[in-house]
């Protein structure tokens, strides 16, 4: 029976018993956190071999000493690894420091110089719900954000194409094409192809920010394949509008990994020149350590299987708690991700903020309501992003039980007042 089927008196009785349970939880003085998508300590331990792996050997095959200055585009060995990972050519990819987000920020900063010469500020399409830090970069550069709904196969491409075709000041789109943050969706082949053709209908200097942060982060043994966007852009002759990003943040060490950016070689040269004002080169010692450790795509797949062994049980716990506590209540829907770092949950409209406040008062921190939308404004106040990776399973269980209790309580309250 759903909550909507209950009479007012039944809802009030339910509300009273849920409130009692919440008071008991508050007395426990919990301090739990379901906010950021960070790897857990046991995941970080999988890469401890990085420490000391070079064992005094700092020379590359071509004789370069990685301890010294130079080489903004990265060491050839790491570029080759990145090219295979991103399905691009070696001269299309560079290897950066520990954050792909930094590369996104700097690339857009470079593009701003061109966009600012136009007579209207740039606009970006932002599939929602999406990644808050993408939106923060746009805010920082005063790039106007136009939300576009996500579907099960990626952004709603009819809307995307219509908007891009109508408005030459739309200069780009954010994409997390595999196991999207937060919905977990992987873009369909049709979406990838249509995305690659967007620059043909867009104004000048359009960029597809293809943030493949979860490229290798499968939760199932049979991962969904993602079409190669670089191949599609090559066919459409739009490679200079494509910027692919990825990093090893959630492969090795989140705070000490390496990052990748791929685009057409001419654009890469422009970016190299732009970066060259601010630096002489990224950390090549770390790049070499990573290549020695991960070796190749087979090595990477074996390593990611170890992550999967740790993460799949956590995601299964979250999904089974949601199913058993909310499955028949008709008060929430959620995604069943096959990879990535999040479960995206939608409450009844208008109560996500209340749920998050209530959970916080009961000692469970959740990502702020609205964080998955531009300017932190969820127009329906219903999306909650759950990040199961960091807490140990017992804490995750406890935090989830508090979250579902708060959803039940706020939903009952909402229906009583309706
Ligand atoms: C979609 C997406 N892109 C990028 C990042 C951050 O990547 P990096 O650590 O390489 O800066 C995250 C981290 O949560 C993410 O979810």
UniProtKB/TrEMBL annotation:
Q: Which is an annotated GO molecular function term of this record?
A: L-aspartate:2-oxoglutarate aminotransferase activity
The record's annotation in InterPro entries points to: AspAT_Ic, PyrdxlP-dep_Trfase, PyrdxlP-dep_Trfase_major, PyrdxlP-dep_Trfase_small
**Keyword field:** Aminotransferase, Transferase
The source's domain of life comes to Bacteria
Report whether Transferase shows up as a keyword of the record.
yes
Read off the Pfam families from this record: Asp_aminotransf (PF12897)
Q: What is this protein called?
A: Aminotransferase
